[in-house]
Design a protein that fits this description.
Blueprint: H1 2-8, E1 26-37, E2 49-57, H2 58-65, H3 71-74, E3 89-96, H4 106-109, E4 112-118, H5 122-137, E5 147-154, E6 163-169, H6 174-188, E7 198-201
């Protein structure tokens, strides 16, 4: 299924000669892509996030993904912080439908997250974010229904670049968290060793 995801994406060609059946190719779960706008003192955390789209098929996903900026295109790069349309966006989230990307959501409340905070190069940030999302919606990171979603966040401050990748899941369970970490590192490939992943309870 992950190969179908790659084959269907205009920016991610799949294995040569692979015969992909005609679509639509339905995902195991439906997903929602969110944006988190720069904080407004007069608004709550929830008010500063907005649903961009819902995706139910591989084709839906790539249509949406290819029209949403990569983190490198709008996050602070050491010189400037660009805008997405007319707004400043400091994070993107991809979460299962009916789960909001906030700790207070019932699906997240008793869970935890793996996060890596570092000054990624922009190409590496884009690549890691893509591979985490593909592994997540392609169900290769999670054999059950434990993953809630993932986020990429611009944590740059005072002219210093800093970004955070997060993988959220339902249960704060040691065996589960270790299994998800191993799967995520496998999806990221050799570059995964550049990340120090920390576990945080919700």
């Amino acid at each position: 299924f992950r190969r179908v995801l790659f084959r269907s994406g205009a920016r991610c060609p799949g294995p040569i000669g692979m015969d992909v059946p005609a679509g639509p190719h339905f995902l195991e779960s439906e997903w929602v892509i969110w944006e988190h706008r720069a904080p407004d003192k007069n608004k709550s955390y929830e008010d500063n996030m907005a649903k961009l789209c819902e995706v139910a098929t591989v084709e839906d996903f790539w249509r949406a993904w290819n029209n949403i900026p990569k983190p490198s295109e709008i996050f602070y790069d050491g010189r400037t912080r660009k805008k997405f349309a007319s707004r400043t966006v400091e994070a993107f989230s991809v979460f299962k439908k009916n789960i909001k990307p906030e700790w207070e959501d019932p699906a997240n409340r008793s869970g935890a997250e793996w996060y890596c905070r570092r000054a990624f190069t922009m190409p590496q940030l884009d690549e890691f974010w893509l591979h985490i999302v593909l592994g997540m919606i392609g169900e290769t990171l999670d054999a059950g229904d434990e993953i809630c979603g993932a986020r990429v966040v611009d944590k740059s401050v005072n002219g210093r670049t800093m970004y955070r990748l997060e993988l959220w899941f339902r249960k704060n369970d040691d065996a589960l968290s270790k299994e998800l970490l191993a799967k995520m590192q496998e999806a990221l490939g050799k570059g995964a060793q550049t990340c120090k992943w920390d576990l945080r309870s919700h």
